[in-house]
């Protein structure tokens, strides 16, 4: 039996970050949605474990010996007391180190695929608990729905958000999460962090209005790590046509929310014509 599971891009509509705690982790609050763009995981029975990586961004992961997909499979098998072989294939469509949760979503998809392949019968909550050991973003990716992330990202509360048409733009430069957070600390940011309640919006227009007053606290340090991020914002400002533009996660991907799918498609074409080497993807969020 072969199973295929979609691993959607995770987008931070907002990301508020505090100063590091005694354990070194940063408290955060983030409104998270998932896109209809993403990677794919295939899983099938095999005599021994293996991982094949394909797709436009697969080559960048080929030399990685500690892939989150492999670690997810190892954790799940160990927890279930299994020694099953499995052939995993990752179709890597999302850019690497891009702030849209690609690795975390891939790990979550692998957990879902293997839970079915091995007939473990685990709930999403149980899979999220396994995934928490792989990174703070993995639990949210296991649930795969719009949510409000708190703690250091491990606490997830589902929320309702109307669908948003958007464009994802990545300038092809890496913004490693660790480097961005180190720069965040060097800049002594996070002093204004205040806990708030999960959002509740009547409709899309109210959501966009309130989101416009929110922010991504990693934007300044991410621009220092990957200056090309500033180029994305400058181009979007010059082109117009976006209701809201913001960095996702630690970057370098920026999202631009448009009025509707047609406007998002048009904006994507205009960006691609101007910057043909950038990764540009019209999508639906939520």
Structural class: alpha+beta
Our Rg estimate from Cα atoms comes to 19 Å
CA(first)-CA(last) distance: 31 Å
Report the β-strand fraction as a percent range. Answer: 25-35%
Number of strands: 10
Provide the fold topology:
Elements: E1 2-17, E2 28-46, E3 50-54, H1 68-80, E4 85-91, H2 102-117, H3 124-131, H4 138-143, E5 147-150, E6 155-158, E7 164-170, H5 177-186, H6 204-211, H7 219-225, H8 228-239, E8 244-247, E9 254-257, H9 261-274, E10 279-285
Parallel strand pairs: 3-4
Antiparallel strand pairs: 1-2, 2-4, 2-5, 5-6, 7-9, 7-10, 8-9
Helix pairs in contact: 1-2, 2-3, 5-7
What do you see in this structure?
This protein is α+β, with helices and mostly antiparallel strands and 286 residues long. 33% of the residues lie in helices and 27% in strands. The chain contains 9 helices and 10 strands. The strands form 2 sheets. Strands 1, 2, 3, 4, 5 and 6 form a 6-stranded mixed sheet that branches. The two termini are 31 Å apart.
